[in-house]
Structure formats: structure tokens, C-alpha cells
Amino acid sequence: MADFNFQNRRDFLKYTLGSAAAVYGLNSHAQSELLLEKGLTKLTILYTNDQHSRIEPFPENDTKYPGEAGFAKRASLIEKIKSENKNVLLLDAGDIFQGTPYFNYYHGEIEYKLMSLMGYDAVTFGNHDFDLGCENIVKQMPHASFDFINCNYRFDDTPLSKNKKITPYKTYKKGHLKIGVLGIGIDLENLVDIKYTKGIIYNDPISCANKIADVLKNDEKCDYIICLSHLGFKYDTNKISDVTFAEKTKNINLIIGGHTHTFLDKPHSILNSENKEVQITQVGWAGIWLGQIEVFFSSYNKKSLQNNKNIKI
């Protein structure tokens, strides 16, 4: 923050949002205002993935991301977006932990505290979130005010077995909209030391997700369903990815992914098992981008249009 030499918070926000506008243009904002004037309801989805304990921005001399990312800049941007929009959902697709000395010393406490201050609604688990075991997650959870969502891990024989913060899904009321969120995780074998994953049972994410999505659509009557996934975007092997997962899903509208650190300028569209569109998105890693999707709904709560406005931090 000090490197920018801003006089006050307002100057900082003006700089950050002005830079974003230069990259993405103002046409989408004008379009959003016009759609709202026509009586449509807007849902703003903000998201991150693979933050990897990148609390501070990259150094100015970094060869790839000089001065980019940082929790403080992201927090200011999120606050600004929330002040301008009524129905905002803030989500993360896993790997919050591991990657800088902040995690080595504080074991995730800072990440959870800062994300709580930003107002995150929900996260799912990535493989690196288990790098110090379930015991550490239990220890850090009191610092988190957000929900932990996963439907394909079983924690019955772990310290997380009785933790009420972990649920297969959650629903969120945003205005008159009801949004369903579910979470799925990657197979932890060969990704995390077995001593830290003892007792965790990995179940097929496709069958688990379809079961929960059916509940969200038909029992909970959700208007829009989001899956937080840490499977990875796409592989050259037959390993399950968000792309192959999406093809076999039902009722899911949007997959917010992680693990492969893939920067997608806009969501990737796939036809699901019922020949309906499901979109996959991911914003790289380290908080370099803040993902932003605006979904517009008609008066009957049916999805009408969508704007994608990912922001480089």
C-alpha cells in the first residue's frame, strides 16, 4: 500500500477502479444500468480461487506479477462493488492456505480473519487447505465467519467430523432470488501427505454433486445453482476435471473452479447431460484477479442475461 503513496482511502479506490475500467471498458456498466431500468434483478457473483496465502502484493521487481494482488487492494475493491450493488455473493474455490511465510507462521489464521472482514459467504476445500491436517482447519475455523461447503468428502473419522460449519450445500437469499451453492473437492491421494488426510473419504464428485443439485433445484427451489469446485479446469489425461464434470452434471448453472491456476477471461460454456448450458470459470491464482459475474433475472426469476467483468488487481 505504501508504495502507491495514496493520500486517502478514496484516492486508493479511485486508482484501483480506474485501472479496472481502463482494461474492461465502461460498456458493460452502461448495459447493466439499462437492464436494471427495465426491471431485471441483478445478482453479482464475486469469486477467487487458489489464494495461496498471498496476503501482500507481489514485489515490484517480480518478473511476472510486479505489484499485483494483495488482500488490502482486494478488500477495497470488494467494498466498492458491494456499495454499488444490492445482491452480492462472495465465494472461494479452495487452496486458501500455503504459499508464503504467512501460512508457515500463522497456519491460516490471517487468511480466515481477513476473508471474514471482506465478507466472504462461502468457500470449499482445496488440497493445500489440508497441508497441516484436519486438526489445523478445526483450530482456524473460529476465525472464519463464512460457510465451508463440500459434498464429496466424508470426515467421519477425522477431527472435522462434528464440525457444524461444514455442509454439503447452503442457500442464500439475495433480494427475491434464492441461490444454491454446493462444493466438491479433488482426490487428495498423492497431493497431500497421508498423515494429514487420514480418515478423509473421497467420493465420486459427479454423483454427489448431481444429488445435491437435485435437492437445490427441486426441494429448495433455487433460482440459480453454483458449484465451487477444486477439481481443476482441464487435463490431457482422463483425470476428472471441471470440463468432464460439467458434461455429466444436471441443474448446475455455474462452476467456479480452482487447482489448475487457469486464467479464464470469460466463462467456458459446456453442455451438460441434459444438453443445457453450464459455465465454468476460474481466475488463476494468488488473488491476481477478482472474478466478477453479473447475472440478470426476469420478473419470474429466470436467468436472462449475463455480464463477465473479471478485474485484475
Quick recap:
With 313 residues, the protein is an alpha/beta fold. The chain contains 9 helices and 16 strands. It is globular and about 50 Å long.
Q: Which key features would you list for this structure?
A:
single chain, 313 residues, alpha/beta, Purple Acid Phosphatase, chain A, domain 2, six-stranded mixed beta sheet, 23% strand
Folded structure, characterized:
The chain is of the alpha/beta class and 313 residues long. It has one domain (2-312): Metallo-dependent phosphatases (Purple Acid Phosphatase, chain A, domain 2, 4-Layer Sandwich), CATH 3.60.21.10. The chain has 9 helices and 16 strands. The chain has helices at residues 9-24, 27-37, 71-84, 101-106, 109-118, 133-140, 194-197, 205-219, 242-247; strands spanning 41-48, 88-92, 122-123, 147-149, 153-154, 166-167, 169-174, 177-184, 201-202, 224-229, 254-256, 268-271, 277-281, 289-297, 303-308, 311-312. The strands form 3 sheets. Strands 1, 2, 3, 4, 6, 14, 15 and 16 form an 8-stranded mixed sheet that branches. Strands 7-8-10-11-13-12 form a 6-stranded mixed sheet. The protein has a two-stranded antiparallel ribbon with strand order 5-9. Helix 3 links the parallel strand 1 and strand 2. Helix 1 packs across helix 3 (71-84) and helix 3 (71-84) runs parallel beside helix 5 (109-118). The longest helix is centred in the N-terminal third of the chain and has 16 residues, at 9-24. The chain is globular. The two termini are 13 Å apart.
